[in-house]
C-alpha cells in the first residue's frame, strides 16, 4: 500500500486537494493565523499584545494576580465576583474587607480572592520578581503571600513573561487535571482520585476522559467529547456530551493562574437524574477546581508551610548549650567505643526513651482543635455561670475520640465517639466531657471497668473477641438502648465534624436566686449528620485509618470552620419527681417532646493545634471541673467519673498536670489560681510563692469571698446505705421508642444487618440466642428478623423487671 505524505497546504489521498486550515479560523483583533501539522493540519491564532483566546477575542487585563496553592479560596464565591464590572473610581486599584481582596484592572474589571486579613507589603522578602508587588496575609499563625504582577508578567513570583504571545484556550485547558475540590454531585458522591484528561481532536473538538475510584473502591471512567462554544462572556465554554448515559452539560473555565489551577463549573441542566440537586431555576450549579499537579491536603504541606514561615535557628541541647555537630557520637578513634562524657548524646537518648506517656485507658485515639464559644441566648433565669451570660465569648478546646481502640487504631470503626469540650472561663475550667450518644451502656460505675474489658482485647489471644462483647450484653440488658444506637447508622459517623455531642448525664444548674433545675447538654452539629457506610468504613480503616483526624485538621486548615450549637433540656425539681424513670439513669433520655431543646450558644473551631502532644495528648478533661452555677447530679455514673478522671490524669500526666499550658486555667488572663496546694513532681509554676501554706491564717493568705455566689447548692439525700441493684429499672421502653419511632424502615433494616453481622462472629451460639432474647423484649419483629438472618428459632423473651417509677 502506498501512502502519500502531503506538503503543507495539500490534503487528500493523493495530495491533490488544496487546503489551508486558516480558511476556517477567523482571528480577531488583528491576530495572525498560522497553519501547522501535528497529527493533522491545524491552525492557531498568534495574538497581538493585550489579546488572547482561540481567535484572540479576549483582552488581557492590565493587572493580574496569582493565587498561591497555600491560599484557601472558595470556588463558588470566586465565581460570584468574576466578570463583575461597575463604576470604580479611576484611582482605585485594590480594595478589601474582612473576607476578600479585590484587584481592579484598567478596564474596571474586578478579580477577587479570599484574603481575610490585613493587606500590606511583604517585609524583609525579595518575594516577587519583575516589579511585582507582594501582598501578605497573616491569619491563624500562618503567613500566605500573593504577587500582583505588572503588565505582561504572570506566575507565582511574576517570573514568567508573555511579551510576545498570549496564552490561548488550548494551552490553558488541555492536558491532565486532578480534581482539587467539588461539591458532592450525584455522579461523584464519595469518589476519590478523580482526574480529567482533555485532548484536542482532529475536528477541532476537545476529547474528555474522566476517571475515578468510586465509593466502594472500584475504578470507573467515562469518555466523551466537547465542542467549543463562542461566548464573549466566558474565557472558555465547552458543550460536553459523554458517550454513556446521555449526559450533556456546559463546562466553563472560569479562571486560571496559568500554572496550577483551573476553576470549572456547569450551570445548565444535566439530564442525569439530578432533580434533587436542581435549584428553583431548574439549573444545576456544579463546581470543580482542577489542578495540573496532583492535589495535596493542607496537612500534607504542613512541614513545607513551616519551612516557608520560619528561619532555621541554632541547634542546642535541652539546657540551651549551642551544638556544633549533631550527626556523630564521641568515640575513641573512628572505630572505638562511645564515651559517657558525650552529654549531648546521653541527654538526647534519655529524653527519647521517655518521650511517651501512658496512653488513655479509654479514648486513646483522638483529635482536637481550639476555638470560641459564644453565649448567644440569655440563660440567667436558670444558671449564674458567667460563661453562659449572653454575649460572653470563651476560648475552648475540643477533643474527639474513639472509646475502645488504642492510640494508633482506626477512627472509622463502629464505636462511640468521645466528645469533650474544655471552656477556659473567667471562673476557671469547665470540662463538658461527653460522647456522641445521649446514653451509655451501664448505669452503675462499678460496671464500667467490666464493660471496657469486654470491648478491648482477649487477655490470652490479644485479639478483639465478639464472644466477650455480646456476653457482656447478654448479662446486662441495661445496655440495650446504647447497643441499638451503636449498631444504627450513627454508630460510624463520617468524621468528627458530622456528629452531635451530648453531656449524656443529668447536671444541675443554679441561678443567682439559688434556684436549681436539672439539665442535659446537647451539642448539635451545624454541618449536619453524616455517617459512613459500613463497607466504606472498613475500607478506610485499612487505607486511611486517620480519616476523621485528617478530615478535622484539613477542614480547619481550609478555613471551613466546624461549629456546634449548644442546647440544654431543662427539667424542674417537681417534673423530675413525676418521671416514670430515674432522671439520673445514664441509659435513659429526656424526651424532646416533653422537654424541648433550649439554645445557649455556639462553639466554633478555628485553630489547629501547633503541637499534638503538648496540646491534645496532654489535655486532661474531668467532669469534676465546673464553674459556679453548674453542678453534678446524683447520677451514679457521673459521681464515679468525678473521681476517676482526675485520678487517671495523676497517673498519666503527673501530679501537676494542671500546670501544663493546655490544662492551665490561667490561660484565661482573668483567672488567678490561689490555693494551698504545694510542691509535687514537675512543679513548674510559681508554687504560690511566699504565701502561707495553711488555712486559716492571719497573714493575708488566700481566703473565701462572696460565699453566697460561689458556694455549692445545698442538697438533701436520705436512704439506706447499700449496694442497690443497678439492673432493676425498665430497660426496654426507651429502646422500643428508638427502634419503632426514631428509626425509619431503612434505619431498622440497617441496625438488624449490623447486629447480625457482628453476632455471627460469636462462636458461642448460646450467647447469640440470649442476645436475641433480650432484643425480643424491645420488639418481636426485631428479634424475628435477627433470628432469620442467623438461622435460629426465635428465642423466648428474657424475664423483665416491672416499670419502676422514679425513686427520686
TrEMBL record:
BP GO annotations: hydrogen peroxide catabolic process; response to hydrogen peroxide
Disulfide bond is among the record's keywords: yes
Keywords linked to the UniProt accession: Disulfide bond, EGF-like domain, Heme, Hydrogen peroxide, Iron, Lipid-binding, Metal-binding, Oxidoreductase, Peroxidase
SMART domains cross-referenced by the UniProt entry: Catalase (SM01060), EGF (SM00181)
Disulfide bridge map: 47-56, 149-158
Domain EGF-like: 18-57, 118-159
GO molecular function, a single term: lipid binding
Pfam hit, one: Lipocalin_2
GO cellular component entries: mitochondrion; peroxisome
Role according to the record: Catalyzes the degradation of hydrogen peroxide (H(2)O(2)) generated by peroxisomal oxidases to water and oxygen, thereby protecting cells from the toxic effects of hydrogen peroxide.
Family, per entry: Belongs to the catalase family.
PANTHER family (UniProt xref): CATALASE
Protein name: Catalase
Protein source organism: Rotaria magnacalcarata
Amino acid at each position: 500500500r502506498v501512502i502519500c505524505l502531503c506538503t503543507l497546504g495539500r490534503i487528500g489521498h493523493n495530495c491533490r486537494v488544496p487546503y489551508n486550515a486558516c480558511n476556517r479560523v477567523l482571528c480577531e483583533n488583528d491576530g495572525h493565523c498560522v497553519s501547522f501539522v501535528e497529527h493533522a493540519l491545524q491552525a492557531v491564532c498568534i495574538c497581538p499584545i493585550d489579546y488572547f483566546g482561540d481567535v484572540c477575542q479576549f483582552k488581557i487585563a492590565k493587572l493580574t494576580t496569582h493565587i498561591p496553592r497555600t491560599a484557601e479560596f472558595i470556588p463558588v464565591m470566586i465565581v460570584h465576583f468574576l466578570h463583575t464590572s461597575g463604576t470604580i473610581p479611576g484611582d482605585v486599584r485594590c480594595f478589601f474587607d474582612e473576607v476578600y481582596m479585590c484587584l481592579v484592572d484598567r478596564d474596571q474589571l474586578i478579580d477577587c480572592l479570599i484574603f481575610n486579613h490585613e493587606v500590606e507589603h511583604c517585609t524583609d522578602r525579595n518575594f516577587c520578581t519583575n516589579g511585582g508587588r507582594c501582598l501578605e496575609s497573616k491569619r491563624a499563625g500562618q503567613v500566605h503571600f500573593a504577587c500582583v504582577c505588572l503588565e505582561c508578567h504572570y506566575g507565582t513570583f511574576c517570573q514568567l513573561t508573555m511579551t510576545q504571545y498570549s496564552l490561548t484556550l488550548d494551552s490553558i485547558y488541555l492536558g491532565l487535571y486532578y480534581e482539587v475540590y467539588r461539591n458532592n454531585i450525584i455522579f461523584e458522591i464519595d469518589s476519590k482520585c478523580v482526574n480529567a484528561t482533555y485532548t484536542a481532536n482532529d475536528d477541532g473538538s476537545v476529547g474528555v476522559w474522566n476517571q475515578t475510584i468510586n465509593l466502594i473502591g472500584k475504578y470507573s471512567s467515562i469518555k466523551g467529547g466537547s465542542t467549543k462554544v463562542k461566548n464573549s462572556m466566558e474565557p472558555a465554554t465547552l458543550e460536553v456530551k459523554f458517550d454513556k448515559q446521555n449526559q450533556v452539560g456546559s463546562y466553563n473555565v472560569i479562571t486560571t493562574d496559568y500554572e496550577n489551577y483551573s476553576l470549572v463549573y456547569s450551570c445548565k441542566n444535566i439530564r442525569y437524574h439530578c432533580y434533587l440537586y436542581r435549584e428553583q431555576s431548574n439549573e444545576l450549579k456544579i463546581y470543580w477546581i482542577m489542578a495540573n499537579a496532583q492535589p495535596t491536603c493542607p496537612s500534607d504541606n504542613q512541614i513545607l508551610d513551616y519551612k516557608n514561615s520560619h528561619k532555621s535557628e541554632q541547634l542546642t541541647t535541652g539546657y540551651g548549650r549551642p551544638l556544633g555537630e549533631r550527626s556523630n557520637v564521641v568515640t575513641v578513634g573512628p572505630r572505638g567505643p562511645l564515651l559517657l562524657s558525650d552529654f549531648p548524646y546521653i541527654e538526647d537518648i534519655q529524653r527519647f526513651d521517655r518521650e511517651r506517656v501512658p496512653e488513655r485507658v479509654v479514648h486513646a485515639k483522638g483529635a482536637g482543635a481550639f476555638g470560641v464559644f459564644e453565649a448567644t441566648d440569655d440563660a440567667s433565669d436558670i444558671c449564674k455561670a458567667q460563661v453562659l451570660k449572653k454575649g460572653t465569648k470563651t476560648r475552648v478546646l475540643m477533643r474527639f475520640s474513639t472509646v475502645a481502640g488504642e492510640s494508633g487504631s482506626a477512627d472509622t470503626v463502629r464505636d462511640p465517639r468521645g466528645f469533650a469540650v474544655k471552656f477556659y472561663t473567667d471562673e476557671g475550667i469547665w470540662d463538658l466531657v461527653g460522647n456522641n450518644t445521649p446514653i451509655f451502656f451501664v448505669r452503675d460505675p462499678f460496671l464500667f471497668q467490666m464493660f471496657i474489658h469486654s470491648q478491648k482485647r482477649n487477655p490470652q489471644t490479644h485479639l478483639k473477641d465478639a464472644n466477650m462483647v455480646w456476653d457482656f450484653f447478654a448479662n446486662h440488658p441495661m445496655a440495650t438502648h446504647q447497643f441499638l444506637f451503636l449498631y444504627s447508622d450513627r454508630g460510624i459517623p463520617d468524621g468528627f465534624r458530622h456528629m452531635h455531642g451530648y453531656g449524656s448525664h443529668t447536671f444541675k444548674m443554679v441561678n443567682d436566686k439559688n434556684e436549681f433545675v436539672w439539665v442535659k447538654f446537647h451539642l448539635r452539629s451545624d454541618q449536619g449528620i453524616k455517617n459512613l457506610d459500613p463497607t466504606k468504613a472498613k475500607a478506610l480503616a485499612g487505607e486511611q485509618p486517620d480519616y476523621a483526624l485528617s478530615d478535622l485538621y484539613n477542614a480547619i486548615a481550609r478555613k471551613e470552620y466546624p461549629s456546634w450549637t449548644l442546647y440544654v433540656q431543662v427539667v424542674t425539681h417537681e417534673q423530675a419527681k413525676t418521671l416514670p424513670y430515674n432522671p439520673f439513669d445514664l441509659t435513659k433520655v429526656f424526651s424532646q417532646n416533653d422537654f424541648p431543646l433550649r439554645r445557649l450558644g455556639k462553639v466554633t473551631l478555628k485553630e489547629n493545634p501547633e503541637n499534638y502532644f503538648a496540646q491534645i495528648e496532654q489535655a486532661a478533661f474531668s467532669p469534676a471541673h465546673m464553674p459556679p452555677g453548674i453542678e453534678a447530679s446524683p447520677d451514679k455514673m457521673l459521681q464515679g467519673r468525678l473521681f476517676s478522671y482526675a485520678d487517671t490524669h495523676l497517673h498519666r500526666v503527673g501530679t501537676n498536670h494542671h500546670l501544663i499550658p493546655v490544662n492551665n486555667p490561667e490561660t484565661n488572663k482573668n483567672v488567678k489560681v490561689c490555693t494551698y496546694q504545694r510542691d509535687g513532681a514537675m512543679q513548674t509554676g510559681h508554687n504560690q510563692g511566699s504565701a502561707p501554706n495553711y488555712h486559716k491564717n492571719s497573714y493575708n493568705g488566700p481566703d473565701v469571698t462572696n460565699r453566697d455566689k460561689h458556694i455549692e447548692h445545698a442538697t438533701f439525700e436520705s436512704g439506706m446505705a447499700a449496694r442497690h441493684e443497678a439492673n432493676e429499672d425498665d430497660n426496654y421502653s426507651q429502646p422500643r421508642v428508638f427502634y419503632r419511632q426514631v428509626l425509619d424502615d431503612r434505619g431498622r433494616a440497617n441496625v438488624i444487618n449490623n447486629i447480625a453481622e457482628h453476632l455471627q462472629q460469636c462462636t458461642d451460639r448460646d450467647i447469640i440466642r440470649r442476645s436475641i432474647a433480650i432484643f425480643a423484649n424491645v420488639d418481636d419483629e426485631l428479634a424475628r428478623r435477627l433470628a432469620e438472618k442467623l438461622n435460629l428459632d426465635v428465642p423466648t423473651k428474657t424475664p423483665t423487671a416491672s416499670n419502676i417509677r422514679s425513686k427520686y
